[in-house]
Amino acid sequence: MATMLGQQGLHVTKDRVISKMPQCYTPESSIQYKSQFNQQVKNACKQRHAVDLGLKMSKVVMLGDLYVGKTSLINRFCKNVFDRDYKATIGVDFEIEKFEILGIPFNLQIWDTAGQEKFKCIASTYYRGAQVIITAFDLGDIQTLENTKRWVQDALRENDPEACSIFLVGTKKDTVTLAECERTERDAIQFAREFKAEYWSVSAKTGEHVKDFFFRVAALAFEQSMMSQLERSKDSPTQIGNGTLINLEGNSAEKKENESQHACC
Ligand SMILES: Nc1nc2c(ncn2[C@@H]2O[C@H](COP(=O)(O)OP(=O)(O)OP(=O)(O)O)[C@@H](O)[C@H]2O)c(=O)[nH]1
Ligand SMILES: [Mg+2]
């Protein structure tokens, strides 16, 4: 895969560059029918010095019943492979996917979790600190759609619901007829609205909509991370000198003095 040196000298493969907001699956399937990046975010990225160029990364957790196709979906996107044989995930696993979004390096840390009940306690310790919650169900097994609500509730217990983007994904699209898919999608989009999630149908086997889906996830997570950074920089005015951000919280002499008092050793 051709790699290119992003502005930060980070190797980003050519097909991981996002310069405009990826579209949603269908207008009905998206709560925030967003088709453009936020203008402030675009401006901040254009004025490169205004952006803290530290490593930007968002944590994604992939949840759902066993066998619905979570690992296959991640492997199709990250490694472009599909394995017919089922190997249940034990505990958790994660992949780091590098992007360049509006010229800024951005990583998604994608946590794959086990759907089997007996591994749930291990997996749930990894829900914390997620900016994106993806819950998957099998388009050919409506019971797995019912169970997505519980998966999302479990994950939201460990995170600030306001700070999380939620996606509901119908997998194995290749295994259902168009009519069955449309019928299940109608139910799924209703479900998605209840927990403010954006809906997608995908197939890890054929690759249908897999890249579109993860690009949308990355773009919305990037924008959310930039917006909170811009908010923070509004609250604590920063001096933009040679591109470094200096936090003016408390003055350093006072802080140093405090620290020496508390020095434990
Ligand atoms: N036809 C078809 N089969 C799929 C698709 N995605 C996954 N599968 C098959 O479904 C089975 C389960 O897939 P996995 O990705 O291992 O499921 P999982 O959700 O990770 O399962 P756990 O790790 O046990 O939670 C495997 O045999 C896959 O080959 C798909 O898009 N189409
Ligand atoms: Mg798995």
TrEMBL record:
Q: Which UniProt keywords apply?
A: Golgi apparatus, GTP-binding, Hydrolase, Lipoprotein, Magnesium, Membrane, Metal-binding, Nucleotide-binding, Prenylation, Protein transport, Transport
How this chain sits in the membrane, per its record, is: Lipid-anchor
**Which superkingdom, per the lineage?**
Eukaryota
User: Could you tell me the EC number(s) of this protein?
Assistant: 3.6.5.2
| InterPro entries referenced in this protein's UniProt entry, alphabetically | P-loop_NTPase (IPR027417), Rab (IPR050227), Small_GTP-bd (IPR005225), Small_GTPase (IPR001806)
- Reaction catalysed by this enzyme: GTP + H2O = GDP + phosphate + H(+)
Where in or outside the cell is it found?
Golgi apparatus membrane
Cofactor (UniProt): Mg(2+)
Q: Pfam families this protein is in?
A: Ras (PF00071)
Q: Name a GO molecular-function annotation.
A: GTP binding
- Cross-referenced Gene3D superfamilies: P-loop containing nucleotide triphosphate hydrolases (3.40.50.300)
One GO term under biological process is: protein transport
Q: Which GO terms describe its cellular component?
A: Golgi membrane
The record's function comment reads: The small GTPases Rab are key regulators of intracellular membrane trafficking, from the formation of transport vesicles to their fusion with membranes. Rabs cycle between an inactive GDP-bound form and an active GTP-bound form that is able to recruit to membranes different sets of downstream effectors directly responsible for vesicle formation, movement, tethering and fusion.
Family assignment from sequence similarity: Belongs to the small GTPase superfamily. Rab family.
Name of the featured protein: Ras-related protein Rab-36
